[in-house]
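Margin note from the TA: students keep mixing up input and output lines. Inputs are the sequences; the output is the structure of the whole complex. Example:
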Amino acid sequence: MRLRTRTAYAFLTPYMLIFLAFWIWPIINSFYLSFLNTRSANWTFNPQVTWGRLLVDPAFSNALWNTLIILIIQVPIMIALAIVLASLLNSPMLKARGLFRFAFFAPVVVGEVAYAAMFRLMFNEFGIVNKFGVSAGLPSVSWFSDPTAAMAVIIIAVTWRWAGYNAIIILAGLQSIPDDVYEAATLDGVSKLRQFFFITLPLLKPVILLCVVLSVIGTMQLFAEPFLITNRGGPGQETETLGLFLYRMGFNTFNFGYASAIAYTIAALAIAISLLNLWLGKERTQ
Amino acid sequence: MRNILTCAALALALSSGSALAQSGEISIWSWNIAASSLKSTVAGFNKQFPDVKVTVEDLGNQQTFDKMLAGCAAGGVGLPDIISVENHESEIFWSQFPDCFADLKTLGYTDEIAAKFPDFKRTELEVNGKAYAMPWDSGPVAMFYRRDFYEKAGIDPASIKSWDDFIAAGKKLQEANSGVTMTQADINGDSEFFRMIANEQGCGYFAADGQSITVNQPGCVTALETVKKLKDAGLLIAGTWDEKIQANKAGTVATQMYGGWYEGTIRSTAPDMAGKWGVYQMPSASADGPRAANLGGSALAISASSQNKEAAWAYVNYTLGTNEGQVTMLKDFGLVPSLLTALDDPYVKEALPYWGGQAVWVDILSTLPNVKPSRGTPFFQDADKILVATQLKYLNGEFADAKAALDEVANQVAGATGLPIAQ
């Protein structure tokens, strides 16, 4: 018995060692670093220039604000879109269902760099978006020079990439709702629209909540889109997210201490938002 | 007698031995034209050192910086033998990772060799008694302009002495050439116009000793005001490095302001436009104000983790320390030598066919003695990012005036670096 446990631990050891070296140790060490002044060699203890700076740094509040804007605008739009998509994909009238499901899921499979390059081309001065816009009588927009427009591009891009993914998850939820619920409702003369709002949506709530949690965590860590599409959070720092700000402080200015403090703040925010979600989920069962 | 002969033979063996003994492979990280120019000196280098195989990797400017920091943070793992670094960005490496780079003095970079370079190129590279890198090129600023567009509007570039002249000329030019913009700056992601004009006006992010913040001093205020004047007059549109090249090729821009090394970029990216481009000096705040500035300019360092430092040094010394190496890069790619003796090369005085017969190097290099030093300091990245973000806000009208915007920059830089704001 004891031998068996020992064998089990022996097999686990290689993984545990790697886990300790590359996960636990950095997590602990970066907490220690977050109290050091690392602006130049000979690091000294001075939390005032890390944790203290967080409170007064306009660049940090700018990144936090940008992240929250994306969170508040993009996540609801994407989830609503995903629910509509899932319902359409679930419709018995749909032909070539497999093809459509794959088509909407495909953006997730596309490499980030390739898709970012496509978005840069589509939205540039002479891109297809402006071509269509102008021919429809709209003014030409310089998407990457205007702060609001640049933010819109980020939101559109992230939505394009992840709406289909969420739709597939919600589709699985839709298919787990038993048909007899709808049958009974139809017999009672409930319209399709009312069925959607009063049967489908409530029964989907746990699945939607899962999608929201995943999306919130994803948005908190958003990095690739503003890095690649709007050229490192441009124009200026108008689309700089927390992830990008952390990267810049860590790897452009090599201020590891401050970067560590930012990392811990992002983690704390993600935990807080997840707890909020958990609390919302609990309410549902009462 | 025999002793003397042995000594002579030994000396001979030693002196030639150092050349013959070099063999193996060395790798270099660099970017764009700079990478191409390093490739162009390999042939000449291999005549002297046939057994050294040189591989130049063009990573792009930002990638080189990022990978270099990551490599140094990892204790030198994965770094190439030779790394390119821009002067103004270099001090963060020496200050954060003093052990990541070989001290060139131990490899043969003597005081005599170092003295062949101007002081403003050396101050950032030689810190704490060590020589971390060897000066490569410099970037005396010039205006690269389209002769045909200027002629069509009846503008004589020699008459453009102040930025007000430039704005008046730009309005005329855009009227005469529809679809053409006077100039381009990367106002969404960079600060190159601000830095060039500020340097011209004797102002920089930090004081010369690197100990205080000077970004809100009058010269810098003038620079920021000038950028806004250009943009508000509709003469300046946003363009990244790549977009500027696209505009050059498409013929939608009339003027590019850059360091002298842009000569090679225009010539190599638009080879079919020979005769259409010319060069004139950058305008100043007033008609008789200073007209010399420097933008960019790099250096080569050897990583401490290099397995073949001697061969790497041999290459660096050939490429940067000989007229042959430096002039090859000037001829092929327009990299302005910082090796002073290379400036006396006959090529510098030649009229160049691509530039419509203008001896552009005479015009560009004549400003070099008047360039004021502008220290990057280890905090260049901090200050620059803050300036870029605030500049955009200022251009969009979020500040009352340039002084208020730069006061805000100075405050933020002080928060980021801990340095005091100069009075």
